[in-house]
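G., the chain you wanted modeled:
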Amino acid sequence: MFNRRSVLAGGAVWLTMGRALAAERMLDTAYINARVWTGDRLLPRTDAIGIAGGRIVALGANAVHAASSRRTQTIDLQGAFICPGFIDNHTHFMLGAATLAQPDLLGAIDRADFIERLGRAARARPGKWILGGSWDEQRLGGALPTRHWIDAATGDTPVAVPRTDLHMYLLNSAALRAAGITRDTPDIEGGVIVRDETGEPTGILKDNAKTLVERVFPTPTDSERDTTMREGITHALSRGFTQVHAPEPFDWITYETARRLRAKGETDLRFYCFVPARDWAKMAAIVAEEGRGDDWVRWGAVKALADGSLGSRTALFRSPYSDAPDQTGVRVTSLVDLTAQVEGADRAGLHVTVHAIGDRANDEVLDIYAETARRNGPRDRRFRIEHAQHLSLATIPRFARQKVIASVQPYHAIDDGRWAVERIGEERLAGTYAFRSLIDTGATVTFGSDWPVAPLDALEGIYAAVTRETIDGENPQGWLPKQKTTVEQALTAYTVNNAYAGFQDDRLGKIAPGFIADLTVLDADPTAVAPDTIKNIQPLRTVVSGKPRYLA
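Predicted structure as tokens:
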């Protein structure tokens, strides 16, 4: 155990530790000659870090030198940048990890290229389901793809590939047959089977309709899932991440796989696992019997869905879509069920988050949170809203007022910014991806990726938040530039605030004496380079619990 008495003198900090180690004043590892951004307002910058027993115990060159011995491993970083380990607030980790071995469809330059990539994948593994990567019709001319595009290229190999937002699947005819979906299949509540003018399914399934095909997907073995997670861990560490949050609204797969790996030892990457809110009673029973895990793999959190996505026109708005006047979106979970899930989970002491995209969905979730807090009484609950993408201006201050965390993903802004105005018009853009407004009104804003919807890459996210330059190059001064953040605000959202959003702010998210030594080392200081070059910065080293888990 650590005695939290520290001495601050001349920028050097030494933490008095357990008696034996304190007597020897010996560090396991010393990182020197570094540009350190600590995330700690008491000492925002320093130049050296000393680690012992997986914890940070010394800061500053003088303190680190004084605490070093012949047994200390001293690493000269030659001016490299160190910050607290990146945490991603929102991943679909197992799905993202699985896509690492799937065809790259987002890279397709046109319809022909898209078809060829799927055909190549089908020829490489005939008869085996193709379930990724993901596609974006905006990069393929704007029209939604159909089964007719890909049937000839994929043949009898079933294909069910998600749109980049994960709210639609494109199926070929083989997959439709495997799922038993025909013109006579009725729509499912909270979902849409897109049909052509004759009533035949086009191959597009939206939101809850996706379950019609998911029920026939092949089930991987535990061993296969373990391998997939390990591949995802390797990828995440290579991008500088020390922890990911996995808010899953449909299944327990990430939770089960992470627990299985943890039982075999350290997982190298930390996991905070959310399970479907409809299963809150099951999770509450697990917490009552087993606790909430440890700092490698934690649970005790649930996620619900309020609506769909902007790209699928299933995000729930108060006014109709500008490009579809007969549509206002889809309520994926009824208000009765959503309220019951949130109130039940919160009453059981679980951590609750809800996916909400459209302005109506966000307002309804905030209303449910307010009523739940009133009914269940005061406590430190840290409600979250995942995405919080399209807000009315009157709604923005509610996040701070209600102490609701805005769990957002900056890359979506520079992706959707290419076409969002077509969906919702100029007026509603005022509260779209309103990161700076949320921060300025005092809300806790956290950053992540939504991987595989967007790249698992904090530098891309920081770049997106700071520049707001859309990926098509059409907004060099930034899309909705008043919503740009500073680099420090973006770093805080990936570290300090994400630790808070996971109830770990007393031990993670900062480089401070007594904190766990989770560190990300980069080849350049993002606060000191031109903003448009931030995305080119590369991780050099990822340290988790004091141990290097990735070296470039």
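Confidence is low (pLDDT under 50) at residues 1-11, 16-23.

Shout if anything looks off.
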